[in-house]
Amino acid sequence: MNRRYPRATPWRVLLVACSVAIGLTGCGSDAAPEAPSPTHDEPSQDSASPGHVRGKDGSAHGAHEGHGETPDRVELDADQRAALDLQIGTARAGSAEAVVTAPATLRFDADRVARVGPRLRAKVRTVEADLGDTVAAGDVLAVLDSVELGQAKAAYLTAAARYRTRAAAYERDRRLAQDQIVSESALAESRADYRQARAERRAARAELKLYGMDDAAIDAIVDDSDAPLSRLALTAPRAGRIARRDLVAGETVGPDETPIHVVDNSRMWLMIEAAEQALPRVAVGQTVRFGVRPLPGETFTGRIDWIAPELDRESRSVRIRAVVDNPNDRLKAGMFATARIETGQANDSASANALVPIDALQQIGKRAGVFVPGEHAGAFVFTPVTTGAESGGAVEITQGLSPGDALVTAGAFDLKAALTAGGRSAAHSH
């Protein structure tokens, strides 16, 4: 099977390869006197300095051995490791054929987005929250003035005053009627006036609620306050961050506008466009792993919670939604992603193979293999493997690596470059 292997950043590989080569070729320098050759009775040195490479038998490759042979081990010191972006992971159990790969896009969870705007025409006085601010439910986002709201509040104050007057008069007439001081007809008239005033007050409160005011805000309206009746506060209906702010002081906004968006992006949606051939294999509840372009080498996880009941007429694809946790705010709405849906067809089998990223697989000579961590920090060993099926950026390992084994999942090409460069220098240094 022909495979494409990733390339490394040239300057990083050159830096480490030069360091390895310098460590190996130092004994051939003309600046140092030639050391006496060891006798057969003297034991040879078995240790290798950082940057040296070893064969798979553990012996160091020096001047009189290793010609034409590629070493299987590389040791990097702290500076060399820092120059390479290496990531260590574990091989998962699975099957490449059980993975569905599809393009996807990140979006805000629509259930966690609040679009805030006035319910009547108003002019902006001040804006209290800016882009990126974290707000709690009930926090004031902007202060506005509305002539229509002022009129509605004034009507409510009038209705409330009339209600109090009619309620007191009716209560007085009811007591007097018990003492037969007020006639039944006068009591009936007083009762009718009271009920009418109560209905007018209730209607005035309902109108203010339509404008977004709650019971506490309505009860706080008083006619002896210095605050203008036209004053309107836009408040956050939920906790989150300000993701949009399209208003400035002095601007007039209407009831059809929502200039402020409050978003809780701790959980997001991954919208996947899968080929229709994948429909028999995907289901709600399956795990989705994906990566995004701005964060190469990182993998995120979600879970499918919805599959569209129809196909797109033009692309013949089906929309799939996965819910993704985003506690560290690393993911942004609009990011493009490559999603890998794990259908689970092979995960229940005890004979499932190891599944590794295709970038972890490297070709050295005629051998395909992966790098596994050595017994101490900075040591990496090239381990030959036998590969199986490949799909969705992952490849099966049928021999040489087991599920759960540690390996270099990112930066393997850099190790290969340093390893082969160091091997050539060791072979020809003398």
Model description:
The protein is an alpha+beta fold and 430 residues long. Helices cover 24% and strands 32% of the residues. The protein is built from six helices and 25 strands. It has helices at 10-25, 78-83, 147-178, 184-210, 215-219, 412-428; strands at residues 53-54, 73-75, 87-90, 92-94, 99-108, 113-116, 122-127, 134-135, 140-145, 231-235, 240-245, 252-253, 260-263, 267-275, 287-292, 300-311, 317-325, 336-342, 353-357, 362-364, 367-373, 379-384, 386-391, 394-399, 406-410. The strands form six sheets. The chain has a six-stranded antiparallel β-barrel with strand order 5-14-17-16-15-18. Strand 23 and strand 24 form a beta hairpin. It is elongated, with a radius of gyration of 37 Å. The two termini are 38 Å apart.
Topology:
Elements: H1 10-25, E1 53-54, E2 73-75, H2 78-83, E3 87-90, E4 92-94, E5 99-108, E6 113-116, E7 122-127, E8 134-135, E9 140-145, H3 147-178, H4 184-210, H5 215-219, E10 231-235, E11 240-245, E12 252-253, E13 260-263, E14 267-275, E15 287-292, E16 300-311, E17 317-325, E18 336-342, E19 353-357, E20 362-364, E21 367-373, E22 379-384, E23 386-391, E24 394-399, E25 406-410, H6 412-428
Antiparallel strand pairs: 1-2, 2-22, 3-25, 4-19, 5-14, 5-18, 6-13, 7-9, 7-12, 8-11, 9-10, 11-13, 14-17, 15-16, 15-18, 16-17, 19-24, 20-21, 21-22, 23-24
What's a quick, concise take on this entry?
By secondary structure, the protein is an alpha+beta fold. The protein has helices spanning 10-25, 78-83, 147-178, 184-210, 215-219, 412-428, and strands spanning 53-54, 73-75, 87-90, 92-94, 99-108, 113-116, 122-127, 134-135, 140-145, 231-235, 240-245, 252-253, 260-263, 267-275, 287-292, 300-311, 317-325, 336-342, 353-357, 362-364, 367-373, 379-384, 386-391, 394-399, 406-410.
